[in-house]
Amino acid sequence: MSRTPQPWMVTVVSSSSLDTDPSFLITFADAKYLFNCPTNSTRMMLKGKFGLSKFRAIFLSRIATECSAGFPGFTMTLADSGTKELEVHGPPGLSHFVASTRFYLQRDNLKGHIKETNTATDNPVYKDENLTVIAIPVTVDGSSLSVPSSPASLKRKRSDSPEGTPASKRSSIDNRAEARRPSPNLEIKALRNDPAAWRDFVISRILPGSQGTSLYREKQATIQEIKKRLPTWTHRRVVNSYLIIGPEFRGKFNVKLAEALGVPPGPNRAKLTRGESVTLSDGRVITPDMVIGESSRAASLLVVDCPGTDYIEPFIQSKQIQNIRSNGQNQLHCVFHMAPLEVLQDTRYADWIKSLGPEVHHIISNHDICSNAVNFVGSAAMQDRLSELDKELFRVPYSDKVDGALLLSKLDLGPNVHIARNQVIGMRPLTSPVAPYEEGLDLAEAIASLPKATDKTLFEGVREKILAEIPSTIPCPGDDVTLTFLGTGSAVPGKYRNVSGALVTIPGHGNVLLDCGEGTLGQLRRHFGTDVNDVLRNIKCIFISHIHADHHMGICQLLLERRKLSSPKIPDLFVICTWTTMVYIQEYSEIEDIGLDAVRFLLAPEIEYRKISNTATLDTVLTINELRATLGLGSVQTAAVIHRTPAFGLVLRHKDGWSLTYSGDTTPCQNLADAGKGSTLLIHEATMSDEQEEMAEQKGHSTVGQACEIAKRMEAKKLILTHFSSRYPKLPVLGNNARDGKTRSDAVTSPEVFVAFDFLHIRLGDMARAERYIPNLEVAFSEIQDDEELPSHDD
């Protein structure tokens, strides 16, 4: 309390929108503290230029996709940026959630302190020289949830509150995988008998810090045991709100008053500074308030998560909330409300807001009130400019500016109520919420700031000229199949590209999603707008190539959103993935019902094209046949590829005569070329530029030239390159691999080639047109600066 006062503030990092949920950042000169870490947190940090240093703690209000889905990715980014230690606080379920990430979150240099709030108490859950944080946990009677660690079969009976079945009735997939794992030593077996201790042990190996024991330094038997399923998670749904109290600063010692009162320099002045009274030689008693100025009250704020009306009463009646108005010691300056419209309309909640007084600022975030203006303006600005070239291929992301102010004005919430957007609120000195920019204007500014090389006049008449040059051809099978690229970057999201995801639309049959990186659902919403629910309903298959985070971290959010679609009944969804991915998804479903009762898993190794006849069980064969019938496919097969973890490509061959191969992440792989022989389309990663071949091999990736070479070996007719590193230009240098579609040096044997962008929407039949755009795109991108590079996860 005696240190020099320093300013501090709180910033709205993200609010409720099509691709973000609320998150708030407290900043001191020497520390940062994040409250909630939803999907796209890393990307919003990049956009807001908040920096990645000095993070001390993350506080989660719920273990739910809208509050914590971005935590694994952001934690990896912090670790890769040099963070050595991090406290993470949240309600029960936090440890289970973190332990479930053990297959991909491993960061040996980061020491993670995972702390659950189990009971309400006045004692702080976190305290340092800057902040005192008190958790306000709220649960609702009857909200208990008990789910088994695995489903009883590949398809479970659907129910609103699944209770599941005993672990002894696991699916055949589960039993086959478990049977291959060796027995651990007796000490580890005993530890597993205590579920909480076992989760803590697992976490200690995921985030051990430099002095801890890494998973990779454990005994092989222990490693195999850690890879097994976590103990069943049984809990009550708990929601944490947080009271955050800043530092209190004692008033300044007044030397002149001390001298006037006859207090000499020395021990007596030191005592007064410490708050102690002193008695002078003449018997006078000098108290601290006689020589020390008035202390500044500690400023405080509330982060409130109230997800439904049944949480209102236990929240406002909690001891911590009741004490806020009666305790005048701390100055409540602002309250952040994560509350749906039904909560704000409830008179109990509205009356509580008004009871806090007219001087308190309230920041409201929910999907009914907040704007759906574009968040990732760099990518949107490029799409806007490219749409001048071809509005069919390059679509501007959807935005819908809700008139939240009108809706908010109809609510009786009192004064100083603000819609969350990007406000900064000063806590010392106290200031009102101020938004650095108006939503929508930043997009206009981003478009205006694009270099002259991307001026729309560059594209005038290009499309019409190219259409006139393309010779008429007989329609080919698959021409009407559409690709929508949702993420075309590698490892970490960037200014222009999100992480992996591509949607294949097969007319008359449905959609196949190829990988599902963090933020995929938001990308779907931005691309398809009001039609997104139909798109989600028609996703019949999701293929996850491997366990690295940039390829699967969006799947739980997408499954949850799909589960909410009740009418008409959603069809079963087939998920092809590795065993580790399946286990992660199933373990997460114990925390939040993401609709696994409508999911049919297929293990990628069991349908590998060289082995399927030997490894496929009857269950697998029956499931594959159902998938084939659903999508009109002649065959569905995987191909083992070469990466730093078990990884697979996918080969789809349709009864209509077209075929598609997707590489996932791989170095040049002959097995993939053989499996996809003669494919109509190859989608292949091209993470590195050609001069980075050695680095590509080290990291298990391919260069642009290597991807093109695999396409030739495969005899693929068309090639789309994707999965580009943010280290390199937004448009990779294709060299002689593609020109304008007419002058390729070996046009007879080379496929049509194009480069994927986020939101690229392309029919296979339009590849010839797209390839001819490349010279224009090379000019347009020649002056675009590279992404502000985040530390790579090296995945």
What is the compact description of this entry?
With 795 residues, the protein is of the alpha/beta class. The protein folds into three domains: 344 residues, 4-Layer Sandwich (Metallo-beta-lactamase, Chain A), CATH 3.60.15.10; 36 residues, no CATH class; 304 residues, Ribonuclease Z/Hydroxyacylglutathione hydrolase-like (Metallo-beta-lactamase, Chain A), CATH 3.60.15.10.
Characterization of this structure:
There is one protein chain. With 795 residues, the protein is an alpha/beta fold. The chain folds into three domains: 8-121 and 129-147 and 168-245 and 296-428, 4-Layer Sandwich (Metallo-beta-lactamase, Chain A), CATH 3.60.15.10; 255-290, no CATH class; 478-781, Metallo-beta-lactamase, Chain A (4-Layer Sandwich). The chain contains 29 helices and 29 strands. The longest helix is centred in the last third of the chain and has 14 residues, at 618-631. The radius of gyration is 29 Å and the shape is globular. Keywords: Endonuclease, Hydrolase, Metal-binding, Nuclease, tRNA processing, Zinc. Residues 144-185 are annotated as: Disordered. Residues 511-724 form the Metallo-beta-lactamase domain. One of its GO terms (molecular function) is metal ion binding.
